[in-house]
Amino acid sequence: MQLIAPQHVKAYVTGNKNDFIDAEAICEAASRPRTRSVQVKTVEQQVLCTEHRLRKSLVGRRTAVINQVHGFLLEFGVIFPAGYAALDRVSGLMHSCELPIRLINAIERMLEDIRQLSGEIKKLDVEIKQNLVQIDAGQRLQSIPGIGPLIVSALVADVGDASVFKSSRDFAASLGLVPRQYSTGGETVLLGISKRGDKYLRSLLVQGAHTVLYRVDHRTDALGRWAKNLLARKPLNKVACVLANKMARIIWVLLTKGGTYNSQLLA
């Protein structure tokens, strides 16, 4: 059994909408050789997706509370650096600035909420890492620069069997990491990345690419030299998207052909 995206079926709907016409459109779309389809997720994949969505929700809630703390203290002239690590300095700053006791109590309750959310996020991270021990591909994929347990778990949950993609480019395109094209009259026009597919997984790959680029000066392998040459000519964010595309293609090769990442080879 496979799934077809609704936008691919809509083009074959004729007349008004009813069950018979919908079934006819699905059969017509499924019979087309160029129609894209995906496999149905297993129970284990659905559980992994649930854990990742829960983690994303917890991170969003923690970020919202941190922003509230920044905003409330800024109204009283208290400024501290952005980021989770700087929250340890908030209590000392509030007492040194002689803020109202009621405000301090309210901020302390918000800080306690942040600590609880951080604890839940750490528990989920530990569970995700423990589940990867039983997956052979999990250990091999982590040999790729910028790929950690969180990205590997998201890949297993969302992709599953990578052999359904004919090539590494098809896999990268399914994640929205290839350029959009608007060509006509023999003139090729390439735009930004298409941003199709799973936004969460794409953002993780781009973040992993950023971690590689931040320490690219310390890399002497083929990937490091390739990234340095790009950074000399292109902006950082654009190079991060290009590197995420390359990481996705490497992932497809390891999932379909086996083996581990070789830092001395670069196609």
Question: What's a quick, concise take on this entry?
Answer:
Helices cover 60% and strands 5% of the residues. By secondary structure, the chain is mostly helical.
Could you describe the 3D structure shown?
This protein has 267 residues and is mostly helical. It is built from eleven helices and four strands. Strands 1-2 form a two-stranded antiparallel sheet. A two-stranded antiparallel sheet has the order 3-4. 60% of the residues lie in helices and 5% in strands. The model has no long low-confidence stretch (mean pLDDT 86). It has three domains: 1-40, no CATH class; 44-132; 144-267, no CATH class.
Q: What are its keywords?
A:
two-stranded antiparallel sheet, 11 helices, globular, 3 domains, 267 residues, 5% strand, mainly alpha
Chain-wise SSE layout:
Blueprint: E1 2-4, H1 6-10, H2 19-31, E2 37-39, H3 43-74, H4 90-96, H5 101-132, H6 136-141, H7 149-158, H8 168-174, E3 179-181, E4 190-193, H9 199-214, H10 222-231, H11 236-257
Antiparallel strand pairs: 1-2, 3-4
Helix pairs in contact: 3-5, 3-7, 5-7, 7-9, 8-11, 9-11
Count of discrete domains: 3
What is the H-and-E element order? EHHEHHHHHHEEHHH
Strand order of the largest sheet: 1-2
Radius of gyration: 23 Å
Q: Structural class, from secondary structure content?
A: mainly alpha
- Tell me the helix content: 55-70%
Amino- and carboxy-terminal Cα gap? 35 Å
Average pLDDT, to the nearest integer? 86
What low-confidence regions span 5 or more consecutive residues with pLDDT below 50? Answer: none
Biggest pleated-sheet summary: 2 strands, antiparallel
Instruction: State which percent range the strand residues make up.
Output: under 5%
Total of helices: 11
Give the number of DSSP strands: 4
Gross morphology: globular
